[in-house]
Amino acid sequence: MGYKVAVVGATGNVGREILAILDERGFPADEVIAVASRRSQGTEVSFGEKTLKTKALELTDFSGIDICLMSAGGDVAKEWAPKIAAKGCVVIDNSSAFRYDQDVPLIVPEVNADAVSGFTRKYIIANPNCSTAQLVVALKPLHDHARIKRVVVSTYQSVSGAGKEGMDELFKQSRAVFVADEIERKKFTKRIAFNVIPHIDVFMEDGSTKEEWKVMAETKKMLDPKIKVTCTAVRVPVFIGHSESVNIEFENPITADEARAILREAPGCLVIDRREDGGYITPFESAGEDATYISRIREDQTLENGLNIWVVSDNLRKGAALNAVQIAELLVNRKLLGAKQAA
Questions:
Q1: Domain spans of the chain, in order of start
Q2: Residue 81: is its pLDDT beyond 90?
Q3: DSSP string of 6-56?
């Protein structure tokens, strides 16, 4: 039996990636519908060898659709996800709108797949923040082995995390530098070309940014509420691929060799860790790939039971589109959609 799938936000970076991944992975869909805002109605998007014309969100009937993969931003999700879910369609949302709702499961399939059954409370499943997704994929197998007490993470996040506007701004500013044009700044708070900005999302009362808070809150929700997490999130002049420097303190002893062996066997992880020039992964090499890459695995000599690791992943794929499709595959493989329809 095939399923009927809607992709909301189909003209955006993540929406287009979702369509590509649905085709690549042979998702069992009898029909895929591309949905966008009214102003994008009729825009053509690729789905494998096919071309789909987008429908307006307001004019789409979701009553016969099984799964809605939504990547249209928090405001749209808050308004439309409950309406779509009320039609009996399971919404997998990429925004932060429902991540912290205790009645909405927050899922990374390699980390907490069993939580997916909780979708029946609201028919909504949340996709985590892109930087959190790759982090917990790397942390989960290590936590199962030695129990993590504390994580200190510094992120180096690409401009694609800020959408097409972020990518356009980096391109235009970089070009302007070389031709000595005026640098125009619209999307970011400071110039991003040949620069780094220690500021993603809005500032909170304690001095953290919302992006840093997301990493903490989402890691606790998916992995273990007892883990202490602190984060510094930095925007860097890279088009695709988020990188993270991660310092981990464990309750129990673990060596770098043990961690390397564990991560090599862990789902979703790919270890590239040779202690030589070029024996590590960079965001450029992760672009277009599904894996969460781990490099620079080494023991921290400044604390007991400590490790440092370097984590890199394509934020548009594992950080968003791929993870959403994997959640949809969970629903299908566990026959949860059939249970929903019977109910």
A1: 3-127+320-342, 131-314
A2: yes
A3: EEETTTSHHHHHHHHHHHHTT--EEEEEEEE-GGGTT-EEEETTEEEEPEE
H or E segment at 221? helix 210-222
Instruction: State whether CATH 3.40.50.720 applies to domain 3-127+320-342.
Output: yes
The answer on pLDDT for 2 being more than 90 is: no
- pLDDT tens digits, one per residue of 146-166: 999 999 999 999 999 999 999
d(CA 176, CA 178): 5
Catalytic residue among 89, 130, 231, 269: 130
Which member of 68, 89, 231, 242 is catalytic? Answer: 242
Q: With beta carbons less than 8 A apart as the criterion, state whether 68 and 100 touch.
A: no
Model pLDDT for residues 253-286, shown as the tens digit of each residue: 999 999 999 999 999 999 999 999 999 999 999 9
Fold of 131-314: Dihydrodipicolinate Reductase; domain 2 (3.30.360)
Q: Is 145 noted as a catalytic residue in this protein?
A: no
- The CB density around residue 218, as the number of other CB atoms within 10 Å, is 24
In this structure, are residues 233 and 155 in contact, taking their beta carbons and an 8 Å threshold?
A: yes
Residue 107: strand, helix, or coil: coil
- Specify the amino acid at residue 214: K
The number of angstroms, rounded, from the C-alpha of 216 to the middle of its chain's C-alpha atoms is: 15
- Per the annotation, the verdict on 269 as an active-site residue is no
